[in-house]
Amino acid sequence: MAGLIVQEWIEESGGAEQVLDAMRLALPDSRVACLWNDDTTRFPPSTVDESWMARTPLRGRKALALPMMSGTWRRGWGDGEPDWVLTSSYVFAHHAGFGTKRGVPKFSYVHTPARYLWEPDLDRRTSVPLAGLARAYLRGVDRRAAASSGSLAANSEFVRDRIRRAWDRDARVIHPPVDAAAIAAVPDWAARTTPVERALLESLPDHGFLMAASRLVPYKRHDAVIRMGAALDLPVVVVGSGPERERLDAVAADAAVPVHMLGRVSDELMRALFQRALAFVFPPVEDFGIIPVEAMATGCPVIVNRVGGAAESAVDGVAGAHYDPDDTSGYRAAIDLATGIRPEAARARALDFDTARFVDDVRDWVLGGPAQAGASSRPNSVSSALG
Question: Measured over all CA atoms, what is the biggest interatomic distance in the chain, rounded to whole angstroms?
Fold first, then answer.
């Protein structure tokens, strides 16, 4: 049997799925194990193994399934012994026991230690009802599993620090893959949009708006971008869908500046919007933040929270500006700094996170031999450059 890549679950889109795609690109002969697979067109069905949960009402019900996830991963399922196991974990996938009791090398790529347990106040989506005793118990289970999770890689220095605090372990840093080279290669994304999309572009302010984009959930803080636009007398364009849409529509309607709520858009239109925006604003405390790097790849300057992984890619004064979303007095300085960024500087920084680099780093980590498998603290070239 070839290697095995372990993913929490597979959805139709998302940052974790982007990482999974690149892992398969790096390790094309691998199989995939997941709790359930909601995108059956992503990989040949014969290469994906789902858990018992996929055949029960627990499928897709993450909060209800949470208490049983760790035990399911530890037991594993299916036949065959993989040559190695690579987990892509943001809940309990790093607990996976496929073959590890027999000395199979294990590598755990950590998007974050589970926020359910370690950072429940940071992202309210993960505030599942866990009593104090239940959280304390699961933290113990998680910490013990982390001790036997093989070689660790964090997706940012920010997450590396969280791993140290939560699990008392170190990790190398391998930033997530971004299709930066492909994005940067197109000088005018508007030319690749449909006639309807081009008409929409023409209806928006020309190079004079702030832009926000991501799933509309509370911790992404789109309302903070609208407040920033109002404070600076700049229109705002918001891209995305999600449970916050109705509330944000009301915030937009009451705003002192025009706010355009566009919903979901194509990749081509998203990138054309980046190229027309005055700046892309990203307020959340994020583990890494792929969308700001995509914006930089088009030449768009970004303004990101000074706390979190996005601050590592959008270097202050080089490819964007850092700010505190709650400090209105700093908005003007942030926009002045961001709009002074040269587009070629933003694109050059984005290329440091291209998918090709991720593929090379993952191959080096997983297939580099026993010495590499035992090293868990060597930073990759990107994190070294960040100093």
Answer: 63
Q: Are 107 and 249 found together in one domain?
A: no
Same domain, 206 and 60: no
DSSP track, 122-158: T-GGG-----HHHHHHHHHHHHHHHHTS-EEEESSHH
- CA gap 78, 76 in Å, rounded: 7
Which letter does DSSP use for residue 95 in this model? G
What confidence tens digit (pLDDT) does each residue in 164-185 have? 999 999 999 999 999 999 999 9
Is the sign of the CA dihedral 126, 107, 97, 39 positive or negative? positive
pLDDT at position 116, please? 78
- Confidence band, pLDDT 50/70/90 cuts, at residue 131: low
Q: Is residue 387 part of a domain?
A: no
Tally of domains within the chain: 2
- Give Cα 81 distance to the centre of its chain: 30
Do 222 and 320 share a domain, yes or no?
yes
For residue 121, report the phi and psi dihedrals to the nearest 5 degrees: -85, -10
Instruction: Please state the separation of Cα 197 from the chain's center in Å.
Output: 27
Q: Report residue 281: phi and psi, to 5°.
A: -110, 130
Can you say how many angstroms the Cα of residue 58 is from the centroid of all Cα atoms in its chain? 24
Q: DSSP letter for 171, please.
A: -
Beta strands in the chain (DSSP E): 4-7, 31-34, 48-50, 85-89, 106-110, 151-154, 172-173, 210-213, 236-239, 259-263, 279-282, 302-305, 320-323
Rounded to whole angstroms, the Cα distance separating 314 from 328 reads 20
Q: What is the CATH number of the domain that holds 312?
A: 3.40.50.2000
Domain contains 61: yes
Distances (CA, A) of 169 to 151, 164, 165, 318: 10, 5, 8, 32
pLDDT tens for 76-107 read 887 778 889 999 999 999 999 886 666 789 99
